[in-house]
Amino acid sequence: MIPSKFQYKRAESVSDALSMMSDDAKLLAGGHSLLPAMKLRLNQPDTLIDISRIEELKSIKDEGDHIVIGAAATHHDIAHSNLVKGACSMIASGAGQIGDIQVRNAGTIGGSLAHADPAADWPALVIAAEATIRVQGQGGPRDIPAASFFTGFYETALADDEIITEIHIPKLPAGSSSTYVKFVQPASRFAIVGCAVVKNAAEGEVGNIKVAVTGVSEMAYRAHGVEDELMGQVVSDESIDRAAARATDHVDVLSDHYASEKYRKHIAQVYVRKALETLK
Amino acid sequence: MGHSKKRKEDARFIQGKGNYVDDVKLPGMLYMDIVRSPYAYAKIKSIDSSKALEIPGVVAVVTGKDLEKYNLHWMPTLMSDTQMVLPTDTVMYQAQEVAAVIATDRYIARDGKEAVIVEYETMKPLMDPFDALDPEAPVLRSDKEGKTDNHIWHWEVGDKEKTDDIFSNADITVKQQMHIPRIHVASIETCGCVASYDKVENHLTMYMTTQAPHAIRTVIALVAGHVGLTEEKIRVISPDIGGGFGGKVPVYPGYVIAIAVSFLTGSPIKWIEDRSENLQADSFARDYHITAEMAGTSDGKIQATRFKVLADHGYTDASANPSKFPTGLFSIGTGSYDYGAAYMEADAVYTNKPPGGVAYRCSFRVTEAVHAIERMTDMFAKKAGKDPAQLRMENFIKKEDFPWASPTGWSYDSGDYHAGLKLAMDTVGYDELRIEQAQLRKEGKLMGIGISTFTEVVGAGPSKDFDILGIKMFDSAEIRVHPTGKAIARFGTKSQGQGHETTYAQIIAEELGIPMEHIQIEEGDTDTAPYGLGTYASRSTPTAGAAAAMAARKLRDKAKKIAAHLLEVSEQDLEWEPGKFFVKGAPEKVKTIQEIVFAAYTNHPEGMEGGFEATHYYDPPNLTFPSGAYICVVDVDPETCDIKVRRFVAIDDCGNIINPMIVQGQVHGGLTQGIAPAMYEELIYDEAGNILNGTFMDYLVPTAVESPNWETGHTVTPAPHHPIGAKGVGESPTVGAPPAIVNAIVDAVAHLGIKHLEIPVTPFKLYKELKAVGYFNQQEA
Q1: For chain A, domain boundaries
Q2: What backbone torsions phi and psi does residue B340 show, to the nearest 5 degrees?
Q3: SS (H, E, C) B365-432
């Protein structure tokens, strides 16, 4: 890797990192989104602020009705956390489907969310989980619901002078279930289609299902059409088929040499159905 | 021989102590980076280096105009075509070298590269080889005087009249156009060099990633002789190499620029490509458009084949092809089957794509040929209503018919194709799988079984057919045994991961009885190694391995004379067993090889030369013809068209095996590079000439993650003309695997109306094909 010249600073704490931030600085955590861009010199920051060793950003904690995942926790840590598995299993299984072993050992949840790649796995997972993303700026912390965090193609509600610090994942009540299924782009291992589904038992016997889809459009989205079909319905083959058919309602479907718009739409329907079937 | 000895070279590799070109650091060394064209076809209006030269540490910016002063702006290719080193006026493909930046540091060199401003005037590129044939198409190589089209060469072989006659009278004919797409070897180590010219001594040392150091030295001498660099003043050192696969045979412009700059500045110049440069600009492989036909009787007897090829060579024919034939060994494409008539023809054209044509883990163009014949055999079986295994069994050349004269002029040395296929079928459980397949189809599930029974042709080669720039394709071994009975052996080949240090030591150990641990193997330094043409085309064991055996036998003959002298008996009274000569009937009267070697330095017979050294240059009497029977089983997801390889049985016949573990490793690697073109790899260009997958984020080189569990096995049919009966194996799996996989995928969906699938068969491509035959209509209605 032959990037342009940059300064490297290591932050010891979140406030330390915040004090180092400037217009030409970039935060470095796992480096799996930033470094490829720097390698191609698409991104040429003056300064890298390394936040990967800030202990407070790496922990995974139990806070009663939800768990808190530090933004610098690696995909590997999350995939292997019993706390995460117990709170919302798809968060762990989804983390385990990201990239390959090397990527999971280095890449972090906060870095992936901030990068907001339209084919990344985390956006669908946090949207379906109805997670809250806590960010911190000079003015203190603020909480952004996952549903409004992603604002466009590689765009988020995160301000330039803010750091993602925590991801709050609500615990699912007993009897609930969640799943993440993914049709993978073989070279990058990003999702051509990724579908996260949560069925929350506390909200009734039937039809309270959250569905989020990534890889299909310019940003991950909540598939409201799918949810509407199932609302109040007993989950059956017929209702699943009807719901899956609405996987790409109201979104512009991407097209590339791995999957045309038609094929991607087809895969989205198949994968939404596969995800729903696991919850029967 | 025949033992899975651990590899001698691995001690340094697994401890990170390998020595690669990028590990070479010389005092005063400068670094080079290369400005590359963003356009596929454009006039260069201006190159402004001023901003780059302002950067502290940037020493120089070199352009085509600078090289033109020394007549070094063009170079010959190995196919006697011409290639720009740096352009003076026009760029011919995206990522072509435009200028070189020399700096005191690798990072500054890249900064300088970013600061060079090149103004282009773009032109519409010619990306489709069929368009290139159009008489109205623009003439790309207008640098060639009198050139009025984009045609490079025409080649044909076989009996056209006889073949045409069979086709017009045949019961059954099948015909299919297929594309073997452009792919890349993508070795993990990219290409690079350190060119170090000593002005005082007028001597060039060239450390470089080359599979053929001696040939490169000769090429440099031929190109740079006019500036005083003659062959004795050039030393090429090829250190450890991280994968070659044919891609490190050609001479790339970067090497030449580095030499020129070192020659002019007197400073060592290091040039190491990055991954994207390697993938986008270095020689491609394949890119053959083949119209293949097969004719036969209604009961399934193959009678003739006819292939017509259009080869897309990019903007110059820079093929790394050591044969006298422009299509290399494509004429092996008559396959493993017994019939008497074939006709093949090929035409090559220029397009605005990177140049090359490398023999990616195959003798040149064998992979393309094998794909065509194995696909056609399946299509013919289908039309004849026969099981593809049965049809192959009925058409194979019989083992008693070797040596067998092929209709395109080869003399296949040996083989037992029936035994190979039978072993593969028994291993995989072929009959049971066919029963399972019938059952699965009733349930709407898609499962397919594919066969490839290929014949390879390796070991280039006999000097009548093979040379590089006229230099015959022999290879060499030199063995020196020291007084204490320990040896060093040097070779004209160059390992890139194949394990030569182990294999060659085993051959010599077998022939001389010196333990392999006491045999040091060296390759890659033209000052010390005997002349040879390098390692590619699975030629090392067939040529240099043979040379090692022959040189060792010369020493054994000498040893016998010395032993007779020491034991005071005649040579006829002596018997050899590895490591010692003893007197027949009196095994206590014995001299070990160590005692004999010591005597060669201390007490040799009068009139005999002292010392214990031998050299052999081996010119093979024939190529060797390894073969294989591969069976692949796939499951296809009926909804997503995702393809999973469930089983892959590979039975290889590479003759006598020297080290089974190394052979198995070679087969595993080759099979993985075989699933690559079948399912994943293709360099994709848009109409504007932009590469769409020029990084590993988009171009998948399969790894252990994508690899199924390979089930390997062997039949052994020794090469009758080779001193140790070996045939070469490195490339068989790359050649043989793709059609087995594609035949399996086609087989999985044949009942739905699919006759053929182009590679790589991706889920998306399969979806489109199934949609076209109406498969998804019912579900989506």
Answers
A1: 7-50, 55-170, 176-277
A2: -110, -5
A3: CHHHHHHHHHHHHHHHHHHHCCCHHHHHHHHECCHHHCCEECCCCCEECCCCHHHHHHHHHHHHCHHH
Q: Indicate the pTM of the whole model.
A: 0.96
Q: What is the DSSP string of A28-62?
A: ESS-TTHHHHHHTTS---SEEEE-TT-GGGT-EEE
- Three state DSSP letters for B220-252: HHHHHHHHCCCHHHEEEECCCCCCCCCCCCCCC
Q: How far apart are CA B593 and CA B572, in angstroms?
A: 18
Give the Cβ contact number of residue B221 at 10 Å. Answer: 16
Determine the Cα–Cα distance for residues B522 and B780; give it in Å rounded to an integer.
64
CATH class of the A7-50 domain in this structure: alpha beta
Q: pLDDT-based confidence at B156, cuts 50/70/90?
A: very high
**Is A266–B767 a contact, with Cβ atoms under 8 angstroms apart?**
yes
Cβ of A188 within 8 Å of Cβ of B697? The answer is yes
Burial of B226 (0-12, 13-18, 19+ CB in 10 A): exposed
| Residue pLDDT, tens place only, B325-337 | 999 999 999 999 9
Q: Which amino acid would we find at residue A243? A: A
Nearest CA in chain B to A187: B700
pLDDT digits (tens, 9 = 90+) for B624-671: 999 999 999 999 999 999 999 999 999 999 999 999 999 999 999 999
Residues of A in contact with B705 (CB under 8 A): 100
ipTM summary value: 0.94
Closest CA to B608 of B618, B596, B617, B616: B596
How far apart are alpha carbons B161 and B152 in whole angstroms?
A: 25
| The two structure tokens encoding residue A116 | 């907001």
Chain A CB contacts of B767 below 8 Å: 263, 266
Question: What pLDDT is recorded for position A235?
Answer: 79
What residues of A are in the B interface, CB distance below 8 Å? 2-5, 36, 40-41, 100, 183, 186-188, 257-260, 263, 266-267, 270-271
Q: Which architecture characterizes domain A55-170 according to CATH?
A: 2-Layer Sandwich (3.30)
> What is the number of other CB atoms lying within 10 angstroms of the CB of residue B80?
8
Work out whether strand B58-63 and strand B42-48 pair parallel, antiparallel, or are unpaired: unpaired
Cα B315 from chain centre = 21
User: What element of type H or E holds B645?
Assistant: strand B643-653
CA separation (Å) from B259 to A14, B262, B269, B372, B683? 51, 5, 8, 42, 30
Give A2's contacts in chain B (Cβ within 8 Å): 33, 106-107, 110, 274
Residues of B that are catalytic = 211, 361-362, 731
Distances (CA, A) of A58 to A83, A108, A113, B294: 14, 9, 15, 64
Q: Which two tokens stand for residue B223?
A: 């190109």
Nearest to A200 by CA among A216, A177, A183: A177
Contact B564/B574 with Cβ under 8 angstroms?
Answer: yes
Euclidean distance between CA atoms B328 and B307, whole angstroms:
15
Task: Tell me if the domain spanning A176-277 has CATH number 3.30.390.50.
Answer: yes
Size of interface A-B (CB pairs under 8 A): 50
3-state SS of B686-728 is CCCCCECCCCCCCCCCCCCCCCCCEEEEECCCCCCCCCCCECC
Give all domains of chain B, ordered by start, each with its CATH number.
10-123+191-272 (3.90.1170.50), 284-460+622-780 (3.30.365.10), 475-618 (3.30.365.10)
> Which pLDDT tens digit goes with each residue over B447-486?
999 999 999 999 888 988 888 878 888 899 999 999 999 9
User: What pLDDT is stored for residue B460 in this prediction?
Assistant: 84
Strands B519-523, B487-491: pairing is parallel
Rounded Cα distance, B333 and B261, in Å: 45
Residues of chain B in contact with residue A3, where contact means CB-CB under 8 angstroms, are 107
